[in-house]
Amino acid sequence: MRKPSITIGVPAYNEEANIKRLLLVLLGQKQNNFNLKEIIVISDGSNDKTIEEVKSIRNKKIKLIKNLERFGQIYCQNLIFHQTESDIVILLEGDTLPANNRYLETLLEPMIKDSQVDYVQGNSSPSLSKNLLSKILGTQQYIYHQISLKYRGNTDWSCTGRGGRAFSKKVYKNLIWPLNVPEDVFAYLWCQEMNIKTYFTKDALCFYQPPESLEDLLKQRQKIKSSIHSLRQYFPKESIDQFYNRPVLLKLLMTFQFLIYFPLYFILYFLIALWLKTKLNNAKFTDHWAIAYSTKRKLNL
Hints:
Elements: E1 5-12, H1 19-27, E2 35-44, H2 50-55, E3 62-67, H3 73-83, E4 88-91, E5 97-98, H4 103-113, E6 117-126, H5 132-151, E7 165-168, H6 169-172, H7 183-193, E8 197-208, H8 214-231, H9 237-244, H10 248-261, H11 263-279
Parallel strand pairs: 1-2, 1-4, 2-3, 6-8
Antiparallel strand pairs: 4-7, 5-8, 6-7
Helix pairs in contact: 5-10, 5-11, 10-11
């Protein structure tokens, strides 16, 4: 059976700390079930050493596109889809890192085994950190994620670009992101509306860095809050509510486990959550959201 051709796309805005490491890990992946055609990196107006880091890797499969100004992640991802004719496109974020050299094989396996699967969502996990806030957030996110998987066991509550995503040609030649929407949730809801079969694979794991400052945490949480309003002109309210709302029983279970196993972290997280409520507002979602720079530091694994 012919192996599918793969294009990897990486939008990158000021990713000097991790982009080279990410590319080297991708080039070192096993390719037993696919052929890697190219890795397209789009430097989206980066003003650090992102371009130099990419150029330092001399490999013909890496194609660098340089935007002179920042157009946003959605623009870059639409451009990546337009640039290729591969059987499958995988999108990764420049501040994440696959856990092992089987990541791509594992991410693609559901598509290869079932030709009806056209969108695969990878898994994500917080990286190690010595920063207290990052530890608290990483612990909370880990508990939330593990319980969500047991409760639902598929894509929706794990929908995030941090885990990486694979798009079949059927999807990436038809999906066009509009401006100023949360690209990860939009792509998932679009697949649901179009009756595209999706799959979540917990074994295709990428690491990411949680925020290390309250300022960066506020940026992230405000982005989530604002994203809900931006989706309402594209999808039914019921679909959006189903994605974002969590059953009360599930919330109680998450709270109970967090409190029992990590009481100090729970108390601190509770105080942080109260503070966030006083700061969040109805700001409009934008593709040029303020960057949480502490999430772009070198990943500790």
